[in-house]
Amino acid sequence: MNNWEQVQQLQVNAYVERLLSSFDIKETTTDRQLKNGTRIFKYGDEFFGVYKSGMVRKIIRTTLFNESSCYQLNLTRKRKTDYMFFEDNNKLTVRTYETVKRVPIVQELGRLVYLTEYLIKNRGMKKKGKEFRKILAEISGYTEQELTDRHTEPLIQPCDCLLAISQAITKQN
To answer: 119, 17 in Cβ contact below 8 A?
Structure first.
């Protein structure tokens, strides 16, 4: 893993930690899934997956057979696709038709941000009130009352949060 990949992975881990601490969402990723570049999250009774292929999916579990299927959440775009086939007179013919394709999200951090925005917009996910304030107080060095009094001005910069979260992750490991 080169330096750029390490920085990207630190940013992803810091974002996941912030996501888990700020919202009522749980990560249910197994070691094997993590090794394959997949992350699974549970929000309420629903499961959502972020995949290395660039896809973000809602995982639907059926109650009858305990199976699961996926509903893709990525944006769609219409594109023209060509195909070639033999006609009755043994001539090759090219036909074009319009199809709908999903737009993959290349970076893992982009997929996580897309999932977060989807859950906020379409599932009404809200930040944890008091717990979020406690975490913010710990990171910023202010008391919870000071945070309440100073809520109109920016307390800390995003890079400070990433640094504090990465330090907390390092302490856990």
So the answer is: no
Q: Which of 29, 45, 43, 50 is nearest to 128 (CA)?
A: 43
- Is residue 75 within 8 A of residue 65, CB to CB? The reply is no
Phi, psi of 104 (to 5 degrees): -75, 150
145 is in which domain, residue-wise?
1-23+128-173
DSSP codes of every residue in 143-165: -HHHHHHTTTS--S-HHHHHHHH
Q: What is the pTM of this model?
A: 0.68
Taking only the tens place, the pLDDT of each residue in 63-109 is 777 778 888 999 999 999 999 988 888 889 999 999 999 999 999 98
How many domains is the chain built from? 2
What are the φ/ψ torsions at residue 90 (nearest 5 degrees)?
A: 60, 30
Shared domain check, 60 and 98 = yes
Q: Are 159 and 14 in contact (CB under 8 A)?
A: no
